[in-house]
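ok trying this again, last paste got cut off
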Amino acid sequence: MADEKPWSEPVARDILLLILANIFWGATDVVAKFALSEMSPVALLWTRVSIALIFLAPALYARKKEIPQSLIGFLPFIALGLAGFALNFTLVYYGLRLAPASHATALRVTESLTIVFLSALLLREKVRGRAVFGLVAGILGVVLVLNIDFKNLSLFTSGSRRGDLLILAGILVEGFYTVIGKSVLKKVSPITATGLALFCGWLILTMVFGVRIAAEFGHQVPSARAFLAAAYLGVIATSIGYWIYYKVLSRRASHRVGISIMIQPLVGIPLAALIFHDPMTPQFLIGAVLIAGGVYLALGKGSEIKNEG
């Protein structure tokens, strides 16, 4: 059974789409860190998912024939809602309260590794050499772009160990969103999969934290800036970003698409340079070339996969 559609779609277009999605995601940790100064992690997450669901509701209604009619049919979307929105972001947001946003960015590369591992283990995708080289090149590029000093970064030290572990756990959980989604996308469109995953995630969050969130908003309403940050996370990063990601995933192998997540730090550094006038070093440029080359290798024609069994 073919794991992905033939290479009739231009590779360049899919790479550009993934770059666009990762541009949207590149600033999410910083934006979330700002909003968390006024909102609890679960309140911010519920607001983000609610806004995203409202934004996608018309598209979901237009494709209502794709919506399952039984609880069994909803089980994959419940898993997606838990892995992609409810559990993963709850862990990451609580972690961001205890650790710097830079730690979340540095740990983000583990999601690509998780997706590659789960794709081989659960989807039985055979990762070819060029995809492996792409992954290695991307990791090296991320290290250069972030200019990581592992001795002074203080990952997992006493001051932020709990936060880093929560962030890492959330990122690892999120890897299942790609792997489970690959199977779901064989049955429904990318926008329907995204919308139903959001609905299930929202339902889980409302059932578990609804009373607590209502009490929080009743006690103190966040500022317009906090809601604006939540709107960016909901509409741009979630509704549009996740839909684009699933659109490419519907025709590409999951381990190859997952490697594109390493683009995110590449987006954040130029943004900081633009806003804060930080210098662009030769080290950054070398790292950017390695990441770009790694993503191209992962998505290029020479790294097709075979399904075992």
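PB: full thing came through this time. DSSP finds 14 helices and no strands in the chain.
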